[in-house]
Specification:
Elements (H helix, E strand, L loop, with lengths): L15 H12 L6 E7 L10 E2 L3 H9 L5 H8 L12 H8 L6 E4 L5 E2 L6 E6 H6 L1 H25 L3 E4 L7 H14 L4 E2 L2 H7 L9 H5 L4 H11 L5 E3 L5 H17 L6 E4 L4 H14 L6 E4 L5 H10 L6 E4 L1 H4 L10 E8 L5 E3 L16 E7 L5 E8 L9 E3 L7 E3 L5 E4 L2 E5 L2 E2 L6 H13 L3 H4 L9 E4 H15 L1
Parallel strand pairs: 6-7, 6-11, 8-9, 9-10, 10-11, 15-21
Antiparallel strand pairs: 1-5, 1-12, 2-4, 3-5, 3-19, 12-13, 14-15, 14-18, 16-17, 16-21, 19-20
Helix pairs in contact: 2-6, 3-4, 6-7, 6-13, 7-8, 10-11, 11-12
Bound molecules: adenosine-5'-triphosphate, 1-O-pyrophosphono-5-O-phosphono-alpha-D-ribofuranose and nicotinic acid.
The site of nicotinic acid (NIO) has 8 residues, from loops.
Length: 487
């Protein structure tokens, strides 16, 4: 499991300000006040209509190992303030050394479609612990959700074709490469070229060969022949080193000798030039030579727009797509803006005090409450609307959803609709109560979820906005808290 990488103590994987705030809470005597935070994002990435939730398994491993090791404490004791004095007093560091993770966490499962403004995670427990986990939690989920979303968009474009992830060489560092491979698989990729990720994650590993193989021989035909000698049942020939269509002919020559020996040539790979024209011509050559089953793999700066154009507008004859850079770097949107906000805190009488962060920008005003996301579905299983509500309030059987960014937009939900509450228990008072599904079942979930999402929300240009609203009691609570703060 790739999570092995996260099984040492990563408790210091945070911003210093989380620890200074924790120190402040401790000093002021409210470190253990009960608080609730939610993680959510405000805008779907890639100008799209949805995101695909990923990263929870890593969050679980991070939290399972959440404790300050002796050398963490030792390091913290060396941090100094502007006057060169230790920033943290020894008793606080002792408090951290003895800290037992005991948060309660609810989260949306990986492979679930999620939308702006709805919490994908809810964290309940001591203010100090809630604060200390913020940065790592956002680091993990923002990246994996971003890449899983990109992968899901590529899956939409590629329809039933094979998608291979080729991104490691261009990924953002080592963990960027491994996390991206994981997220790509969750989003619907069939295999990766990344051997370490494949081993750690138990996912299929695949690949062809590079131009250097061809260049290391005097000519292309010799290079193909040598490759076929060594790996007769693993032959996808890269045909574009010198002249693509001549390369296809050489592949056919070697394919014929393989056939005589009882092997099938698996296919060819195109990596430059006009992929549409070349794939159509290559298909004709292969079919005419009897290689109707041979695959045509394409790579070279592919993304969902190009795949869509090649398949739909240009009728390209490509059935396997190798995608690297634009997937693993989320090229057109390098970060998901997921945030983590305090929404309630208990007073001395254990009564919730609801909290809101104000902003001049209405979409940046946070939502108070102990929130849950209820997803309503039509009789045919298609997603209909998501309702965010406060678990502390009784809600009507026929709730009204109000757009959090526009109070005059509302939608009535009729009570006959099926629904599911998406935030499910993951940790209860620090104890893991959730069995992480295998990565293969997460991918199956993704495929099912994508099939339940209307095409108008999946389209790449100006997608329809899926209805996500605050249940009306929650909307009123939010307005009240805002008005109180403003007065
Ligand atoms: N039919 C097509 N329609 C739209 N874009 C295409 C088509 N075929 C190829 N492309 C894209 O055009 C871009 C340029 O490809 P091309 O092979 O001409 O240049 P290159 O990438 O610089 O070549 P090389 O890989 O040899 O350096 C690539 O992003 C490629 O994916
Ligand atoms: O284009 P990507 O989506 O990132 O896919 C991975 C790329 O990596 C390899 O190229 P290589 O590193 O040999 O560079 P080049 O093909 O650009 O010369 C491969 O031939 C693909 O073109
Ligand atoms: O196996 C391949 O064809 C491959 C692997 C990584 C990058 N580009 C291509």
């Amino acid at each position: 499991m790739s999570q092995d990488l996260y099984r040492t103590s990563l408790t210091l994987l945070t911003d210093l300000y989380q620890i200074t705030m924790a120190y402040g809470y401790w000093k002021k005597g409210f470190a253990e006040k009960k608080a609730v935070f939610h993680g959510y994002f405000r805008k779907s990435p890639f100008k799209g209509g949805f995101a695909l939730n990923a990263g929870l398994a890593y969050v679980i491993d991070f939290l399972n190992n959440f404790s300050f090791a002796d050398d963490d404490i030792k390091y913290l004791s060396t941090i100094t303030d502007a006057e060169g004095q230790p920033l943290f007093e020894a008793d606080f560091l002792e408090y951290l050394r003895n800290l037992q993770f005991d948060l309660t966490i609810h989260a949306i499962e990986e492979g679930t479609i999620i939308f702006p403004n709805e919490p994908f995670i809810r964290v309940t427990g001591s203010l100090l612990q809630c604060q200390l986990i913020e940065t790592a939690l956002l680091n993990i989920i923002n990246f994996q959700t971003l890449i899983a979303t990109k992968a899901a968009r590529l899956r939409i474009a590629a329809k039933d074709d094979q998608l291979l992830e080729f991104g490691l060489r261009r990924a953002q560092g080592i963990d960027g490469g491994i996390s991206a491979t994981r997220a790509a698989y969750i989003g619907g990729f069939n295999a990766t070229s990344n051997v370490l990720a494949a081993k750690l994650l138990d996912i299929p590993v695949k690949g062809t060969h590079a131009h250097s193989w061809i260049m290391s021989y005097d000519d292309e035909l010799q290079a193909f022949k040598a490759y076929a000698d060594v790996m007769p049942s693993n032959c996808i020939f890269l045909v574009d080193t010198y002249n693509t269509l001549e390369g296809v002919k050489n592949a056919i020559t070697v394919g014929n000798s393989l056939k005589e020996k009882g092997y099938a040539m698996n296919g060819i790979r195109l990596d430059s030039g006009d992929l549409s024209y070349l794939s159509i011509e290559a298909r004709k050559l292969l079919d005419d030579a009897g290689f109707t089953e041979a695959s045509i793999v394409a790579s070279n700066d592919l993304d969902e727009y190009l795949i869509n154009s090649l398949k739909i507008e240009q009728n390209a004859k490509i059935n396997v797509w190798g995608v690297g850079t634009k997937l693993v770097t989320a090229y057109d949107q390098p970060a998901l803006g997921g945030v983590y906000k305090l929404s309630a805190i208990q007073d001395e009488n254990q009564k919730w005090q609801y909290k809101v962060k104000l902003s001049e920008q209405i979409n940046k005003i946070s939502t108070p409450g102990i929130l849950q996301v209820r997803r309503f579905k039509n009789a045919n299983g298609k997603l209909n609307a998501d309702m965010i509500f406060n678990e502390e309030e009784n809600i009507s059987n026929n709730p009204i959803l109000i757009d959090p960014n526009n109070g005059i937009r509302s939608k009535k939900i009729d009570k006959s609709k099926n629904y599911e509450d998406l935030l499910i228990p993951i940790f209860e008072n620090g104890k893991l109560v959730y069995n992480s599904p295998s990565i293969h079942s997460i991918q199956l979930k993704t495929i099912k979820e994508l099939s339940q999402l209307d095409d108008s929300i999946k389209r790449f240009y100006h997608p329809h906005e899926y209805p996500v609203g605050l249940e009306s009691t929650l909307y009123n609570l939010k307005m009240n808290v805002i008005h109180k703060l403003k007065s």
